[in-house]
Specification:
The complex is a heterodimer. Chain A is mainly beta. In chain A, the strands form 3 sheets. In chain A, strands 2, 5, 6, 10, 11 and 12 form a 6-stranded mixed β-sheet that branches. Helix content of chain A is 0%, strand content 50%. In chain B, the strands form 2 sheets. In chain B, strands 2, 4, 5, 6, 9, 10 and 11 form a 7-stranded mixed β-sheet that branches. A 4-stranded antiparallel β-sheet of chain B has the order 1-3-8-7, with no helix packed on it. Classes of the chains: A mainly beta, B mainly beta.
Chain lengths: 113, 111
Protein backbone atom coordinates (compact mmCIF):
# COMPACT_ATOMS: atom_id res chain seq x y z
CA UNK A 1 0.00 0.00 0.00
CA UNK A 2 0.90 3.67 -0.08
CA UNK A 3 3.36 4.93 2.49
CA UNK A 4 5.53 7.92 3.36
CA UNK A 5 8.95 7.94 4.97
CA UNK A 6 10.47 11.08 6.43
CA UNK A 7 13.90 11.68 7.82
CA UNK A 8 14.01 11.36 11.55
CA UNK A 9 14.46 14.43 13.66
CA UNK A 10 14.99 16.52 15.46
CA UNK A 11 16.78 18.76 13.03
CA UNK A 12 18.61 21.62 14.71
CA UNK A 13 19.87 24.54 12.64
CA UNK A 14 21.18 28.01 13.20
CA UNK A 15 19.23 30.95 11.86
CA UNK A 16 19.85 31.59 8.12
CA UNK A 17 21.04 28.02 7.50
CA UNK A 18 19.82 25.96 4.57
CA UNK A 19 17.12 23.42 5.32
CA UNK A 20 16.39 20.08 3.71
CA UNK A 21 13.89 17.60 5.11
CA UNK A 22 13.80 14.39 3.14
CA UNK A 23 10.58 12.66 2.19
CA UNK A 24 10.18 9.57 0.04
CA UNK A 25 7.03 7.73 -0.80
CA UNK A 26 5.65 4.46 -2.11
CA UNK A 27 2.46 4.68 -4.10
CA UNK A 28 0.47 3.19 -6.90
CA UNK A 29 -0.85 5.52 -9.53
CA UNK A 30 -0.27 9.26 -9.40
CA UNK A 31 -0.81 10.63 -5.91
CA UNK A 32 -0.77 14.27 -4.90
CA UNK A 33 1.95 15.23 -2.42
CA UNK A 34 1.78 17.67 0.47
CA UNK A 35 3.82 19.28 3.20
CA UNK A 36 2.03 20.31 6.37
CA UNK A 37 3.49 22.31 9.25
CA UNK A 38 2.44 22.17 12.90
CA UNK A 39 3.47 25.00 15.20
CA UNK A 40 3.52 24.32 18.94
CA UNK A 41 0.05 23.93 20.40
CA UNK A 42 -1.70 24.23 17.03
CA UNK A 43 -3.25 22.05 14.37
CA UNK A 44 -1.58 21.21 11.08
CA UNK A 45 -1.53 23.80 8.32
CA UNK A 46 -1.04 23.08 4.64
CA UNK A 47 2.34 24.50 3.65
CA UNK A 48 2.55 23.49 0.00
CA UNK A 49 1.44 20.86 -2.44
CA UNK A 50 2.19 19.32 -5.83
CA UNK A 51 -0.29 17.34 -7.86
CA UNK A 52 1.81 15.85 -10.67
CA UNK A 53 5.35 14.85 -11.52
CA UNK A 54 7.87 17.72 -11.84
CA UNK A 55 5.48 20.18 -10.18
CA UNK A 56 7.14 22.48 -7.67
CA UNK A 57 5.11 23.61 -4.69
CA UNK A 58 6.22 26.75 -2.89
CA UNK A 59 5.08 28.94 -0.02
CA UNK A 60 6.73 31.22 2.58
CA UNK A 61 10.17 30.53 1.11
CA UNK A 62 9.74 26.75 1.29
CA UNK A 63 9.88 24.62 -1.85
CA UNK A 64 9.44 20.98 -2.77
CA UNK A 65 9.53 19.28 -6.17
CA UNK A 66 7.54 16.18 -7.03
CA UNK A 67 10.17 13.73 -8.33
CA UNK A 68 8.55 10.62 -9.71
CA UNK A 69 11.81 9.02 -10.80
CA UNK A 70 13.17 9.06 -7.25
CA UNK A 71 9.74 8.95 -5.52
CA UNK A 72 10.73 11.93 -3.43
CA UNK A 73 9.29 15.26 -2.30
CA UNK A 74 12.05 16.87 -0.24
CA UNK A 75 11.30 20.14 1.56
CA UNK A 76 13.85 22.94 1.23
CA UNK A 77 14.32 26.49 2.41
CA UNK A 78 17.28 28.66 1.67
CA UNK A 79 17.45 30.57 4.96
CA UNK A 80 15.52 29.43 8.00
CA UNK A 81 14.27 31.68 10.77
CA UNK A 82 13.57 31.00 14.43
CA UNK A 83 9.86 31.29 13.58
CA UNK A 84 10.17 28.23 11.30
CA UNK A 85 10.64 26.02 14.35
CA UNK A 86 7.82 23.48 14.08
CA UNK A 87 7.01 19.91 13.15
CA UNK A 88 6.81 19.21 9.40
CA UNK A 89 4.73 16.40 7.94
CA UNK A 90 4.99 14.98 4.46
CA UNK A 91 1.77 13.41 3.14
CA UNK A 92 0.37 11.80 0.05
CA UNK A 93 -3.13 11.19 -1.18
CA UNK A 94 -4.34 7.64 -0.84
CA UNK A 95 -5.63 5.76 -3.83
CA UNK A 96 -9.26 6.05 -4.76
CA UNK A 97 -11.47 9.04 -4.07
CA UNK A 98 -11.72 8.69 -0.31
CA UNK A 99 -10.12 12.03 0.49
CA UNK A 100 -7.73 10.34 2.87
CA UNK A 101 -4.11 11.37 3.33
CA UNK A 102 -1.22 9.20 4.42
CA UNK A 103 1.17 11.07 6.69
CA UNK A 104 4.81 10.57 7.49
CA UNK A 105 5.90 10.50 11.10
CA UNK A 106 6.82 14.17 11.18
CA UNK A 107 10.19 15.89 11.52
CA UNK A 108 10.83 18.40 14.28
CA UNK A 109 12.82 21.46 13.24
CA UNK A 110 14.43 23.66 15.84
CA UNK A 111 16.09 26.87 14.68
CA UNK A 112 18.43 28.61 17.10
CA UNK A 113 19.23 32.32 16.97
CA UNK B 1 -15.56 33.43 12.14
CA UNK B 2 -15.40 30.98 9.31
CA UNK B 3 -13.26 27.90 9.66
CA UNK B 4 -13.06 24.69 11.59
CA UNK B 5 -13.47 24.62 15.35
CA UNK B 6 -13.17 21.95 17.99
CA UNK B 7 -14.59 21.81 21.49
CA UNK B 8 -13.63 21.42 24.17
CA UNK B 9 -9.96 22.35 23.74
CA UNK B 10 -9.01 20.51 26.91
CA UNK B 11 -10.84 17.69 28.67
CA UNK B 12 -10.05 15.51 31.65
CA UNK B 13 -12.27 12.50 32.19
CA UNK B 14 -12.24 9.27 34.15
CA UNK B 15 -11.86 5.76 32.87
CA UNK B 16 -15.19 4.32 31.79
CA UNK B 17 -16.92 7.63 31.16
CA UNK B 18 -18.44 8.54 27.83
CA UNK B 19 -17.06 11.68 26.28
CA UNK B 20 -17.89 13.48 23.04
CA UNK B 21 -15.54 15.73 21.14
CA UNK B 22 -17.16 18.22 18.82
CA UNK B 23 -16.04 19.41 15.41
CA UNK B 24 -17.74 22.12 13.39
CA UNK B 25 -16.81 23.60 10.03
CA UNK B 26 -18.37 26.54 8.23
CA UNK B 27 -17.09 25.84 4.70
CA UNK B 28 -19.67 23.18 3.75
CA UNK B 29 -16.77 20.82 3.04
CA UNK B 30 -17.84 17.34 1.99
CA UNK B 31 -15.04 15.42 3.67
CA UNK B 32 -14.32 15.36 7.39
CA UNK B 33 -11.76 13.39 9.37
CA UNK B 34 -10.77 12.56 12.93
CA UNK B 35 -7.14 11.89 13.84
CA UNK B 36 -5.28 11.22 17.03
CA UNK B 37 -1.71 12.36 17.54
CA UNK B 38 0.58 10.54 19.92
CA UNK B 39 4.34 10.72 20.44
CA UNK B 40 5.99 8.04 18.38
CA UNK B 41 2.92 7.37 16.25
CA UNK B 42 2.47 10.56 14.30
CA UNK B 43 -1.08 11.13 13.08
CA UNK B 44 -3.46 8.20 12.91
CA UNK B 45 -6.84 8.31 11.24
CA UNK B 46 -9.73 7.21 13.44
CA UNK B 47 -12.79 7.79 11.23
CA UNK B 48 -13.65 9.78 8.17
CA UNK B 49 -16.75 10.90 6.32
CA UNK B 50 -17.23 11.66 2.64
CA UNK B 51 -20.62 13.36 3.13
CA UNK B 52 -23.50 13.61 5.58
CA UNK B 53 -24.65 10.16 6.69
CA UNK B 54 -21.59 8.49 5.16
CA UNK B 55 -18.83 7.44 7.53
CA UNK B 56 -16.06 4.87 7.42
CA UNK B 57 -13.36 3.46 9.65
CA UNK B 58 -9.79 4.61 9.53
CA UNK B 59 -6.69 3.02 10.96
CA UNK B 60 -7.64 2.98 14.68
CA UNK B 61 -11.46 3.01 15.07
CA UNK B 62 -11.88 0.69 18.06
CA UNK B 63 -13.50 2.37 21.05
CA UNK B 64 -14.78 5.32 19.02
CA UNK B 65 -18.11 6.17 17.42
CA UNK B 66 -18.91 8.94 14.95
CA UNK B 67 -21.99 10.37 13.34
CA UNK B 68 -22.62 12.95 10.67
CA UNK B 69 -26.23 14.00 10.47
CA UNK B 70 -25.30 17.48 9.19
CA UNK B 71 -22.55 18.40 6.77
CA UNK B 72 -20.97 20.90 9.16
CA UNK B 73 -20.71 18.71 12.27
CA UNK B 74 -18.71 15.56 12.90
CA UNK B 75 -18.73 14.57 16.59
CA UNK B 76 -16.44 11.85 17.92
CA UNK B 77 -17.62 9.83 20.93
CA UNK B 78 -15.52 7.67 23.19
CA UNK B 79 -18.08 5.21 24.49
CA UNK B 80 -16.11 4.11 27.55
CA UNK B 81 -12.87 6.03 27.85
CA UNK B 82 -9.63 4.17 28.56
CA UNK B 83 -6.21 5.53 29.54
CA UNK B 84 -4.87 4.49 26.13
CA UNK B 85 -7.20 7.06 24.59
CA UNK B 86 -5.31 9.89 26.26
CA UNK B 87 -4.16 11.86 23.24
CA UNK B 88 -4.52 15.01 21.19
CA UNK B 89 -7.42 14.74 18.77
CA UNK B 90 -7.60 16.69 15.53
CA UNK B 91 -10.55 17.17 13.27
CA UNK B 92 -10.03 18.11 9.62
CA UNK B 93 -12.17 18.88 6.60
CA UNK B 94 -11.70 19.20 2.87
CA UNK B 95 -13.82 20.37 -0.04
CA UNK B 96 -12.21 18.21 -2.63
CA UNK B 97 -10.24 15.10 -2.03
CA UNK B 98 -6.93 15.42 -0.19
CA UNK B 99 -6.34 19.10 0.68
CA UNK B 100 -7.31 19.00 4.33
CA UNK B 101 -7.76 21.85 6.80
CA UNK B 102 -7.22 21.09 10.46
CA UNK B 103 -8.86 22.31 13.64
CA UNK B 104 -6.84 23.45 16.67
CA UNK B 105 -7.13 20.11 18.47
CA UNK B 106 -8.57 18.76 21.70
CA UNK B 107 -6.21 17.55 24.39
CA UNK B 108 -7.92 14.67 26.19
CA UNK B 109 -6.64 13.12 29.39
CA UNK B 110 -8.22 9.95 30.75
CA UNK B 111 -7.41 9.31 34.41
Amino acid sequence: GNSVTQMEGPVTLSEEAFLTINCTYTATGYPSLFWYVQYPGEGLQLLLKATKADDKGSNKGFEATYRKETTSFHLEKGSVQVSDSAVYFCALSSSGNTGKLIFGQGTTLQVKP
Amino acid sequence: DAGITQSPRYKITETGRQVTLMCHQTWSHSYMFWYRQDLGHGLRLIYYSAAADITDKGEVPDGYVVSRSKTENFPLTLESATRSQTSVYFCASSLKAHEQYFGPGTRLTVT
